[in-house]
Each structure stands twice: as structure tokens, then as C-alpha cells.
Design a protein that fits this description.
Shape: elongated
CATH architecture of the largest domain: Roll
Number of strands: 9
Largest sheet: 4 strands, mixed
Order of helices and strands: EEHEHEEHEEEEH
Strand content: 15-25%
Radius of gyration: 42 Å
CATH topology of the largest domain: Ribosomal Protein L9, domain 2
Strand order of the largest sheet: 4-9-8-6
Number of helices: 4
Oligomer: single chain
Structural class: alpha+beta
Number of domains: 3
CATH superfamily of the largest domain: Ribosomal protein L9, C-terminal domain
């Protein structure tokens, strides 16, 4: 069945295309959804007008994507992963992981659709691999994805300025906490010393009181003897 497309369908056709398709595909999918119509008037004229509007819209998208492509083209993304003895990754690097890193290149609060990452299959080995990014139907960018084993020495790992700043801030905070704990420990030690001194003084006063009582008892006994 010959139809004219009224809407663009990724990987199939764009607005205004006239194509021969299977009858079942046309009657069960394209026609009921208004995506296409029989290739005859007035549908041909309607599709032609839609094609003009689509071309204007696509041009605007391409111009915007070209700016992003210039920023991304030739960039290298480094990703650290756990690696087994045979050089295989524990798990894999997928288009979702790569999209997250691409978004970081675009700037703060930026997002990048993982469906624009043209990755035939997940990356499962260390090394450098070229990856294409399809920003629009007509604009692409090429980047490199480098997968590094997390077992490498710290000197060989890429330096992350943000991570270093966080580490310094964490170190300063730990120092402040340590100083506070030391001060509290010192105060606690002083309190214990004061408590021990108070106990010693109390223990010393008790025998003195008992001695005074014994002396009074002896005097009473002696007085009683004299009266006899």
C-alpha cells in the first residue's frame, strides 16, 4: 500500500515522504494513529505543507545542536571501573553511564539523553573506545571513552579538582572535630581528678572523726573509774 507520511517516524520516514508499506502496517498502525494517509489528494497537499514546517523546525534544532557538537567533538571521558584478572570489567559501561559524563561536560544542571549515545554494545574492557553522539537527525559529534582500572596507583588516575577540594574540606573538618574531642577529653580528665581529690579528703576526715569519738569514750571510762 502506498502512503504519504503526515508525521515523522524515527528510522522509517519523515513528513511528506511517500512510501510503499505493508498493508497490515498501514491499516493497523499508521492510518489509525494519523501518522500516514493514502498517497492521494488532499493528503499529499497536507503532507507537503507539513514537510515545510518540519524543515524549518529541523533547521533550528540543527543550529542549536551544532553549538553543542563543537563543544563535545574530540573530548575524552575517563571512567574508573573494577577489573578482574582477565582484564574484564565487573559489570559494564553502558550508554546511560556515558550520557551522565557527557552531561557533566555540557555544564552544571545539564542533561543528556542516553538514546543519543550510539553505543553498539556495552563496554566490558579497559582501554579507549570511540563513541558517536547523534544530537539530531543531521548533527553528530565524536568523543572517546577511556575506561581505567580502579587498581591503578593514585598517581596514574585522572585528577578531579572538585574531589580534591572536597577532600581538603573534609580534612579541615576532621581537624576541627579532633581538636574539639581533645578539649572535651581534657575537661573530662580534670573533672575526674577533682572527684578523686574530693574522695581522698572525705576518707581522711572520716578517721579523724572516729578518733575524736574514741577519745571521748576513753575519757568517760576513766571518769567512771575514778568515781568508783
Amino acid at each position: 500500500m502506498k502512503v504519504v507520511f503526515l508525521e515523522s517516524i524515527e528510522g522509517t520516514a519523515v513528513v511528506g515522504d511517500v512510501k510503499e508499506v505493508k498493508n497490515g502496517f498501514a491499516r493497523n498502525f499508521l492510518l489509525p494513529r494519523g501518522l500516514a494517509a493514502p498517497a492521494k489528494e488532499p493528503y499529499l497537499a497536507r503532507a507537503k505543507a507539513g514537510a515545510v514546517r518540519e524543515a524549518v523546525k529541523q533547521q533550528a534544532l540543527d543550529e542549536s545542536a551544532s553549538v553543542i557538537a563543537e563543544k563535545l567533538d574530540g573530548q575524552k571521558i575517563s571512567m574508573i571501573a573494577r577489573v578482574g584478572e582477565q582484564g574484564k570489567l565487573y559489570g559494564s559501561i553502558t550508554s546511560i553511564h556515558i550520557a551522565e559524563e557527557v552531561a557533566k561536560l555540557l555544564g552544571e544542571d545539564a542533561e543528556f539523553d542516553h538514546r543519543k549515545v550510539l553505543l553498539p554494545e556495552a563496554i566490558k574492557e579497559v582501554g579507549v573506545q570511540p563513541v558517536r553522539l547523534r544530537l539530531t537527525r543531521n548533527i553528530e559529534a565524536a568523543i572517546e571513552v577511556e575506561v581505567i582500572s580502579e587498581d591503578l596507583d593514585e598517581d596514574e588516575l585522572p585528577i578531579d579538582p572538585d574531589a580534591e577540594a572536597d577532600a581538603e574540606a573534609s580534612g579541615d573538618e576532621s581537624t576541627e572535630v579532633s581538636e574539639t574531642e581533645a578539649a572535651e577529653a581534657e575537661l573530662s580528665s580534670d573533672d575526674e581528678s577533682d572527684a578523686e581529690e574530693a574522695e581522698e579528703e572525705a576518707a581522711t576526715e572520716e578517721p579523724k572523726a572516729e578518733t575524736a569519738e574514741d577519745s571521748e569514750s576513753t575519757d568517760e571510762t576513766a571518769e567512771a573509774g575514778d568515781n568508783k
